[in-house]
């Protein structure tokens, strides 16, 4: 008898028939290809519909659909499609704004920014911007891409009712910011640059929070004049055809300048300073190229001026501030860096000098500060002093001296008692004086 071994080993359980749903569940809910291959290997015949979806698999394996990496419907002219988005900042600016509205033209990548106190202001701001763009550049916006927020729905309602506009809205899918990814990614870039500019200026925390809107506006303007290649036109040239006038007068945000705003034009005194210390915070709209926006340090008000002498110093260098970085992680997962103010060379006061107190001799606080309650700005002047109230100050200056009688003898107790009696009965034995710096006598005994 010839025995021929099998060329392939096949694991066969039995010639059983299983429903596809049951076998799919028994095998741990694999995909259809795995179920079919396993059944063939084990010799199991499948009965039933194989294309039927499994509810348990759908619930357990649900995931987001892939987003196309390429946009095949890009804008080809100015205004064909604009994107709008809004973000929230947890610190009100000098104008009270907490929301940053960003508008971007898809074709030229030109940016515009507006700062709002409330989200409900968005529809009116966008409508005013549409009218301004159409009037100044003859650009007609055709499509607006945005998310499904309530303020955007309100904007659609107002524009639909307005006969002057014929704009189509392209709303993104819920929880899919990738469909408006160009402007979403731009926010990340702008926030990074704004934090870097604030870090260079070394503003204290209060000033850093109040100036975020001015810093963000400056970042937007600078974004329209930069390019990643020398041969590529910038966004301002593509949209308006010319560069902004302030391009030839660039300065660093947070730089210190001495200005004359006209308030000292009238002679107030021969020794009165004519200049004011200010911080450069941006470029104003619709002004000459050499006009700048400043924050006055003495009044915390925002002014415009072209009469400036630049010190080429940041606010931190002017105040002799060394930065102490404190990194905090916010609820959104972003890192927030705070700059604390610290004087490099603290002012020392000699403890031997006389310390001046007020007339009521009230205790002085540990830190002297100049505080402006209207603008929440505190300038700390560190000093190392010893505060003494009126009574304690007099006690510190009180000195005593004991002049014993040289003829006294302490050989026995009677001599000691006699010596003490002579001391207390003698006017010149115990002398008390107040060292207040006045050489004049304090009593009749001293004058003799």
| Percent helix | 25-40%
According to DSSP, the number of beta strands is 20
Q: What coarse outline follows from CA principal-axis ratios?
A: elongated
C-alpha Rg (nearest Å): 40 Å
Strands side by side in the biggest sheet: 5-4-3-6-7
Secondary-structure-derived class: alpha+beta
Helix run count: 13
Q: Name the average pLDDT.
A: 77
Major sheet details? 5 strands, mixed
| Intertermini distance | 152 Å
Q: Roughly what fraction of the amino acids lie in strands?
A: 15-25%
Poorly predicted tracts of residues: 324-389, 406-410, 426-435
Question: How would you explain this protein's 3D organization?
Answer:
Helices cover 28% and strands 21% of the residues. It has a five-stranded mixed sheet with strand order 5-4-3-6-7, covered by helices on one side. Strands 11-10-9-8-12 form a five-stranded antiparallel sheet. It has helices at 20-26, 32-42, 55-61, 122-137, 150-161, 181-201, 205-210, 212-223, 235-240, 315-318, 390-397, 413-425, 444-447, and strands at 17-19, 45-47, 82-88, 99-105, 111-116, 143-146, 168-171, 255-259, 276-282, 292-296, 302-305, 308-314, 325-329, 335-339, 347-348, 368-372, 377-381, 383-384, 398-402, 430-434. The protein is elongated, with a radius of gyration of 40 Å.
């Amino acid at each position: 008898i010839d025995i021929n071994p099998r060329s392939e080993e096949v694991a066969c359980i039995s010639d059983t028939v299983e429903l596809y749903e049951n076998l799919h569940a028994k095998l741990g809910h694999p995909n259809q290809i795995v179920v079919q291959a396993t059944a063939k290997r084990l010799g199991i015949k499948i009965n039933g519909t194989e294309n039927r979806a499994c509810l348990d698999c759908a619930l357990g394996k649900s995931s987001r659909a892939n987003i196309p990496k390429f946009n095949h419907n890009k804008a080809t002219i100015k205004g064909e499609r604009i994107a709008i988005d809004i973000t929230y900042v947890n610190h009100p600016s000098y104008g009270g704004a907490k929301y940053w509205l960003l508008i971007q033209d898809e074709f030229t990548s030109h940016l515009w920014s507006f700062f709002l106190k409330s989200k409900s202001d968005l529809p009116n701001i966008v409508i005013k911007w549409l009218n301004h763009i159409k009037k100044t550049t003859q650009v007609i916006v055709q499509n607006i891409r945005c998310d499904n927020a309530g303020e955007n729905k309100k904007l659609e309602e107002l524009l639909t009712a307005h006969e002057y506009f014929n704009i189509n809205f392209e709303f993104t899918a819920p929880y899919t910011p990738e469909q408006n990814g160009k402007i979403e990614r731009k926010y990340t870039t702008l926030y990074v640059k704004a934090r870097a500019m604030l870090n260079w200026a070394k503003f204290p925390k209060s000033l850093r929070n109040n100036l975020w809107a001015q810093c963000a506006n400056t970042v937007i303007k600078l974004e329209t004049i930069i390019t990643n290649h020398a041969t590529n036109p910038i966004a301002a040239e593509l949209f308006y055809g010319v560069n902004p006038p302030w391009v030839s007068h660039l300065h660093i945000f947070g730089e210190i300048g001495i200005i004359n705003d006209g308030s000292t034009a009238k002679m107030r005194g021969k020794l009165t300073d004519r200049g004011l210390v200010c911080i450069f915070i941006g470029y104003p709209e619709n002004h000459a190229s050499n006009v700048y926006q400043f924050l006055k340090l003495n009044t915390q008000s925002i002014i415009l001026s072209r009469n400036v002498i630049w010190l080429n110093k940041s606010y931190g260098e002017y105040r002799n501030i060394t930065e102490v970085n404190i990194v905090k992680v916010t609820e959104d997962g972003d890192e927030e860096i705070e700059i604390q103010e610290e004087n490099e060379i603290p002012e020392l006061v000699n403890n031997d000098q006389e310390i001046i107190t007020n007339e009521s001799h009230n205790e002085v606080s540990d830190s002297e500060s100049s505080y402006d309650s209207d603008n929440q700005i505190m300038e700390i002047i560190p000093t190392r002093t010893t505060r003494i109230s009126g009574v304690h100050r007099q006690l510190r200056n009180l000195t005593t001296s004991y002049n014993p009688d040289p003829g006294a003898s302490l050989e026995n107790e009677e001599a000691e008692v006699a010596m003490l009696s002579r001391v207390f009965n003698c006017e010149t034995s115990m002398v008390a004086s107040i060292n207040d710096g006045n050489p004049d006598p304090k009593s009749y005994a001293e004058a003799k």
